[in-house]
Amino acid sequence: MIEIFKRFTFEAAHQLSDYPEIHGHSYSVEVRCVGDAADGYVIREEVMTAAVEQVRAKLDHRMLNPIIEVPTSENIARWIWAQLSAEMPLSEVRVWRESVGFGAIYRGG
Ligand SMILES: [Zn+2]
Description:
By secondary structure, the chain is α+β, with helices and mostly antiparallel strands. The protein contains two helices and five strands, in the order ββαβαββ.
């Protein structure tokens, strides 16, 4: 099996019960897909890029709370998985904040 990945970043604001003040973060995301690449590809790069860009556009420069209930890194990863899982053979979605070196990995289920 071969795993491929696509990375992107977005800027967004959120509010959490333990940090009630609205504030923003720069998020990094890595979406991974796995397959046997029998024809040389797990998924065509342009197909993955187009799907990922649609997700990025829904999050970038947005307030996350109306989009994702309790928008922690964990739930952002789970939400991105739900957005993309019908379109590609996902194996993993990582969401992290480079500034603090903290993030979450969702592998479905
Ligand atoms: Zn925060």
